[in-house]
Amino acid sequence: MMSSATPVATTSQRRATDAAAVVVPSPRAREIGYDQCADALRRTLVTTPAGWALVGWLAWHHAPTARLVAWVALFFVAWIVNLVNLRLLGHRPAACRARRLAVVALLDGTAWGAVGWLLVGFDPALDAWIGAVLCGVSAVNAPVYITHHRAYASLVGAIAGMTVAGAVLGLEGAGTGPYVAGLGIFFVLLLYYMRPVAQRVLEGIELQLGNARLADQLSDALRLVTHEAATDALTGQPNRRALDQLLDEQVAAAATGHVFSVLLLDIDHFKQVNDLHGHGAGDETLRAFARRVRAELRARDTCARYGGEEFVLVMPDTPLAEAVRLAERLRQAVASAPLLDAPRVAATVSIGAAQHAPGEDADALLARADRAVYAAKRGGRDQVRSDDGRPALEAPESEQVSLQDCT
Predict the structure, then answer these.
(1) Which of 158, 277, 374, 391 could in theory staple to 281 by disulfide, Cβ–Cβ 3.0 to 4.6 A?
(2) pLDDT tens for residues 148-160?
């Protein structure tokens, strides 16, 4: 009992898996299929006159010239109408494009099928050649309509319909029954085998769209992760990782003669904010401090959170004197108004300034800025010190950088 039940369960599972794996083409996939079909049709119609020449060469002296001319004239009219139809497709709705493509296929099939009505029955050899031509036309158009199987069915159905109509209304000569039957069997088999192929092609387009959507999602996720990996979650400023990368870039640029400076900002008595108002207020204070500093920066400056209540400002193409002047304006901006109103939190900041020295790495530069901060702390806080430890004196008015220049 166990051995007989196992294959049944396995088969059921396989069927369930196959059903789950079926991809249903979306309207967008079908729309792309219509566009591909239209493009292929435009290329194919350009070569259609070569088919007329082939049929004319085969039928010359084997079928009445009047019928041959009538067929070419009929086909020429259908050909022009189809070219106009394809030109008018443009950006019409998908349903409209699908209908127009079906009309193009119907006209094309009718024109090709008319050759069997007008030229078959006069010469057995010609009949065989025309049958081969119609089979070839159906086969050549299979990949053209591979993304629009209904239009392809219209083409093949029109060819078969005209052939049957010719037989019913009386093709010239005898023995045309096998000709009609052979073409009919060929067309039925062709449609039967092309239908699943067309479905797989549409499923492939849908899978490509799905892969494109997935790639976009992965790209967005990667950008988000990259941003989050380089951003401090609390303040929204670049984090230590981003700071290290930026400093390495600036050190590399300095090797080619560029000058840059850094400011190390340390909020004074920040522990008291946490002790008096709680860590929530402390977090809000850090956010408000970051916004206050960010409002005073120049476009080329970057302020990153260094850790705790410390921030580092990287200033490309900025010598120490200019960095010190900007630091003083940052100090004044922080002290000018409370950072929070509820609870009321006023703060000051101690700032250390240092200019990169030739051959110096980022760690050594930050170490000098850190020593300058400690000098500012020992000097009474709420002040700016350069890396030599001396207080930063106010520059003459002619050398001062206005707040407008620093934003």
Answers:
(1) 277
(2) 899 999 999 999 8
